[in-house]
Every structure is written in C-alpha cells, then in structure tokens.
Amino acid sequence: MPFLNDIENYKSLSIVGLAKNTGKTECLNYVLSRLRDSRKQIALTSIGIDGENRDQVTQTNKPEIELSEGMIFVTSELHYKQRKLISEVIDVSRQSTSLGRLVSAKALSKGKVLLSGPVSNHSIKELIADLKNKGVELCIVDGALSRKSIGSPAVTEAMILATGAALSANITQLVYKTKYVYDLIQLPEIELNLKTQFAEVDNGIWAIDSEGNARDTGISSVLLIKKEKDKLFQHGNCFFVSGAVTDQFLDFLKNQKQISEIKLIVRDFTRVFAKPETYYAFVKRGGSVQVLNKTNLIAITINPVSPDGYRLNSDDLKSALQDKVNVPVYDIKKM
Amino acid sequence: MFREIVSHTSGLQFLVENLGVRSPMGRRYLLDSKMMCCEKEITAELNLVDRVVKALELNSDLISQIQNKLAQLRDIRGSVNNLLGNLVLDDVELFEIKVFALVAQEIVELQKEGKQSFLEIQDLSQLIRLLDPQNTKIPSFYIYDNYSIDLAEARKELKLAKSKNEDSELDIEVLFNKAQVIEAKVREDLCSKISLHGAGLANALQQLAHLDLLIAKAVQAKSLHLSKGEVSKENTIYRGLFNPMIKNELANQNKEYQAIDIELEKSVCLITGANMAGKTVVLKTLALCQYLFQFGFFVPATSAQISIVDQVMISVGDEQSELNGLSSFASEMLNVSRMVKDSKSHNNVLVLIDELARTTNPVEGLAIVNAVAAIFYHGKIKSVITTHYSGLKSKFRKLRVKGLDKDLGANVITHKNINSYMDYSLVEDLEGEVPHEALRIASLLGIDKEIIERAQNQLACKNKL
Q1: Is A110 on the interface with B (CB under 8 A)?
Q2: Taking a C-beta distance cutoff of 8 angstroms, is the pair B71, B115 a contact?
C-alpha cells in the first residue's frame, strides 16, 4: 500500500479512530505488518488508558496489537503483565499512571500486547523524545480522539485517520462527519513567535494585541463566556483558547459585528468540540481558526462494516469520501 | 531527626534547598538522619566530607562522574523489601534491581579508577552475574533463555509454531502457556537466589545514599566557604562566623556580610546592643551551626571549635501564640520555663533566648532576665540571652555589639545603607549599661519626626530632674 512510503518521512505517527470499531486497530496492525521488513527501529505506545479500559466494562474484545520481534513498545505495568510475547524490559518510567508505571520493552518474539500510555501531551512528547534517544526511528501512537483525555494525538508529526460505518450507517452523513474532522486537521498553524508564547499556557482565554503580544483576558474558560462577555474584546479580536472550544462560544463570536476580524487559535484540532454546523456557520460568516500544533494527515482508512453487521458499499463510500478530501482513502478490509 | 529540625531552624531550609543531592534516597537519608552526639561519629563523618572536599580540588571530574551516576539511581526500597520478604519479583522489579546494581558497580569502578575510595560500597558483582547471565552489562532484563534449557526449548518451539503460521491459535496458546509455566518456575528459583543478596542490596542502597549526601555536603561547603568544625571539650569558639542565607541575600544586593567572632563558655552569656545590630541573627546562626556540626556538615565560619551538646533549645519569640489563646508574653514564659526545666535535668544543652521578657515592663522584665541568667549561671548551662535591659548583674559575662561606632564622615545613614555603617562585631562588656541608640535608629528608619521629637523632649526632662 502506498502510504507506507509517506510514513518513511516521519519520526512519529499516530493512528486515530473517529469512533470505536472504525478499524483503527486493523489499520495499526496493517501498518505494523508492512513495516516488519523495514530496517527501522519502531516503537509503539498509546495515549492514555481510558479508551481501551472501557472495553473491560462492556466485555467486548480489547484490541491487541500484534508486534514482531525487535519492536519496542511502551505500556503500563498492568498491561505489561498481560502480554502474550517474550520481551525484555529496557526502561521504567518514574511517573505512574492509574495502571502503574510505564514500562518500555523490546519484543523478543512476535506476539500480542495491550497498549496504554502517557496521559498528558507533555508526557507523550517527552516519551517520544526519550524513545528517539533510545534509537527509535519511528514512534507510532495508538491515539484516541477522546474528549476526556488531555493528551492529544496531534503531538505526532503525522497521522492516519480511521473512519467507517460505526460512525454512521449513512454514506452522506459519514462523509460529512469525516470531512469535518479532516477540515479541522487541515487548519493552518500559527507563526512560530506566537507558538512559543503559548506553548506553556495551560488555562484561560488569551488575546493577542496589535503588537502581537499575548494578554490574559481574565476569562478562565469558554464555559464562563456568558458572564464575562464584556472582558473578551478588551485587547482585540484575536484569541488563544487553551481548552475546548464549544458551540456556545462559536455561536457567540459568530454574532459579533466584527466577525470577519475574529481569529481563534486552538491548541490542536481535537480541542474544537463544536458541532460541524456551528463551526461551518462561524467560518462562513468570516471567522477563522488556527492551531498551535498541526499534524500532517497522510491517509484516511475506511471500514465499511459496522459492529452490528451493517455493511456499506465500499466503493461508493470510498469515492464519495475521496471527492471531498485531498489525502488518499483506503478500505481497511481490502488492504 | 533532621526532618523535624529543618522546619523550625532558620537558615537550615536554605542550605537543604541548596544541597545538590542527586538521588531520591540521598535526600531521604539526610531527612532520616539523627543528630549525632558522639564525638567519634561526628569526626568520622566530617573526615569523610573533608576527603571529598580535598578531592574536589584535585579531581573534580571524578566527583562529577560519580554524581552523574548517582543521578541515575532510583529508590528501589520497595523492591528490596519485597526481596527481603522472600516474595517473587516481577520483570519490572528485577529490571530495577539490575539497573541499580549496574550503576552501583559503575560507581565502585569509578572510585577504583580514581584511586579514591570515599566510601566503601557493597560489591554487587555476584548479583549482577545472576541478573546478567549473558554478561552484556546492558540495562535491560527478562527471564533469559540462559537460565534454563527447558525454557529455551519451550520458547524455541513457540517461535517455530508462530513462524510456520500453520498451527492454530489454540496450539500456539498451549505452547505459550507451557513456556509461561516454565518461566514462572525459573523466576522463582532466580528470586530465591537473588534474595541471598537482599541484605547486600539494602546496604548498597544506604551506602550510595550516604555517598550522595557526602558529595553534596562537600560541594556546598566549597561553594559557600564553610569550614570543618573541630570537637572542643571546653568552650565553643567561632572565628569569622556568618549566616549563609543572609550572606547570600546581601550578596544579591551587592552588600557584604560582616562575619563575627564569638566564644561561648559553659555558662550564661548576655548579648546587648542597639536595635538592628544583628543580635537575633547571632542567636539563629549559633543554633544553625550547632545543628550543622552535629549532622556532619561543615559550618559557616573560618574556623570553629564546637563542644557537642545533647540538645539545642531556642526561643526567638516568633511562636504562634494567638491560636492557643496565649499572649506573646505567656507563650514566651512557658517556653522559657520548659527550657529551664529541661536544662536542669539535662545539663549538656545549648540554650538560646532572644530578648527575654521583652513584652512586659522593663522593671520586671529586667528581674526576669537576671533570674533566668542566674539559673543558667549556677547550673553552668551553655546559654546565650540577648536583651535591651540595663542593670544586668555584673557577675554574668556580657558581650556587646559595637553598633554604629564606625566613622561616619559626611555620609548620611538611612535604613538602606545602615548595614554598611553598623559594626556587628562583639566585644566583652564589663558595664551593665546597654547602648541607648533606639531613637537614633528609629530616626534613621525615617519614622514620623514627631515621635522622635517628643521622645527626645521627654528624655531631656527626665535628665534635668
């Protein structure tokens, strides 16, 4: 499959599912099986623990990732104990997650493991950097698009998006929803100067004044916007929102008379929690959105089969989606 | 324990924060250490620090190499306890122990190479041999094939089955489980062998923590110009005594700290002097030095002979009293009473009291100072009391801060530069009078003129009478 050549250019890659059962794990296993013959040192981890953990409650099968000999993987102590392969511990983290510390290990035989990983953006970045020091050439992150998780897959250089019938059984709807996430991923990145200013900011709404300096508006969250509307425009029409951007906030901005001057900066595409309708209305009225961290989407995979057995026409779905997006689309079942 | 003392000794927190301990257990070792009261122990520890200080001059590279290694160490107390409790450890714990042992051994090697043995570290080479059967010295671990032929066979079989892709999942599962069972047995055997080294590992953990602390103490001694105190059987004598925290603060403002000399006998000593003359700092520094010395640190002085005490008791009048419903006078008195009582039962102590009975009227206040001083005088208690009261009994030894004696010239003194004109040195004072400089200092501080004028008039009237 062609997108493997694209992967070669990056040092970190995340694979993100738009919903459960959209074929993320199959996509990951596919990528791994293809990378098996490359001479690269590959490492695998995951973001957070909540996504896979919920499966323990619903008793559905937890996806296990098939590793081949020589690959490095990072998982929690609890999941390390459940591994089904022979592996050698090469590091243990100092910090602990709710499933124990993170264990880095090298697979000595092929076999399956459960992945869990660091919870915050900061620790994912640190882990990726640390793995690089250990000689890892490509770090693959099993990423969840979860609103609960504070860690975001956008910290990786490249990304593959997995979508499918599990998200919607209607091709038009499925394409619409996927296109929305695609549009968000393609949001332009802000210039470096602002990027460094906001890299360490972790709360509140900040304005950028005419001189390009960051100024705290004193509003701690977009959820409080109703009460503190008056403060918002004191330093100008360009904002950095460190947390989530909601429907309510976009609606409020959309209705301002200077809408065409309003520029919104979010940490990364996962921070936009608004409905597609709200977002598109905001953009249509002239508002613009940029991100602090942009990732390069290299492909979208589709899984035409939903978990309840419903099957969409693979070719129709593929071409409908391909019409809308500028990255290659592949059927996970045909790869 | 150091942990308790650090919180209520002024200036000690500063030194601890500045102490470059590299490993988590180095810090714990310090906090858990007890105040040493035995001459042999103190001298031994100070000699060890001294050895590192000397090595810092000659071979600072070696020390920083050792420090880098120490920084890699993790506190594996939990795993060691599990080992001593004869539990079977998991791969992660065994990995931690192996990495620890490898780093420990590297430190042993570094000491050997540098022909410098600061502290004997337990030899863990046998343990390493157990955990590193392939002798790679690479910090990684799993239950190696080398441990058992059966295990190696089982794993080979499993690998073969997997690569053939013919066998069903079930067959592979069976083979995997078989390998797991053998692995569990091997692990058990390995752990029982390793547990013989549990005590050695615990030793090494303590020794490395101690080494870390020693190096940190030595580096700090060098950077802050601390010196090695000597045990004195008689008087405690400090030459060039200074307070590191205040010195540092002054240095930040481009000011100099004036070091002082002081000698304490086994009796009471009263310190008098103007306000802002640094009496409280002297008291706090004396307490600090006594603790530093008896926890095996170098002390902030150019030279020091220090007599060992069993306990340091200090009252500097900043106790919280509002909360327990006592006035500042009441809480001070209760505190002093406890000190007097303790000093009677335990006479080898150092008692330090700042401005005793300052919060009551001068007539009774003076009487209290004389009474407490008399008790310490007769009890031969090593003690220092600072006071502003005149009329102290002449039999007590008195030291006076020289104060604003320096030639001022045409310079105007303000509270900002008073520090440069104040002579902080202590002189033996044979009179009972204390300096009357309160109004002068107050006016330098720029307080309301009316207060000064009215106070001066009042004094003038009194003198006329």
Answers
A1: yes
A2: no
* Mean pLDDT calculated for residue range B208-229: 94
Closest A-chain CA to B154: A86
Q: Is the pLDDT of residue A56 over 50?
A: no
Gap between the Cα atoms of A25 and A114, Å rounded: 11
Is residue B318 predicted with pLDDT exceeding 70?
no
- Which residues of chain A make contact with B91, given a CB cutoff of 8 A? 80, 89
Least confident of A21-25, A46-50, B25-29: A46-50
How far is Cα B461 from Cα B219, in angstroms, rounded to an integer? 60
At the top level of CATH, which class does the domain A3-186+295-334 belong to?
Answer: alpha beta
Determine the pLDDT at residue B193.
Answer: 92
Chain A residues inside the 8 Å CB shell of B140: 88-90, 106
> Is B92's Cβ below 8 Å from some Cβ in A?
yes
Name the token pair of B162: 């997997």
Please indicate, yes or no, whether residues B132 and B275 belong to a single structural domain of this protein.
no
Bridge partners (DSSP) of residue A89 are A105, B141
Helix (H) or strand (E) holding A105: strand A100-107
Helix H or strand E segment including A164: strand A158-164
CB contact under 8 A, B179 and A90: no
Contact predicate B414/B306, CB 8 Å: no
A98 compared with A172, residue with greater pLDDT: A172
Tens of pLDDT along B155-200?
888 888 887 766 677 788 888 888 899 999 999 999 999 999 999 9
The domain boundary, picked from B151, B180, B214, lies at B214
- Chain A: residue nearest B74 by CA? A94
Determine contact, residues A332/A302, Cβ cutoff 8 Å: yes
Say if residue B464 is in the same domain as residue B358: no
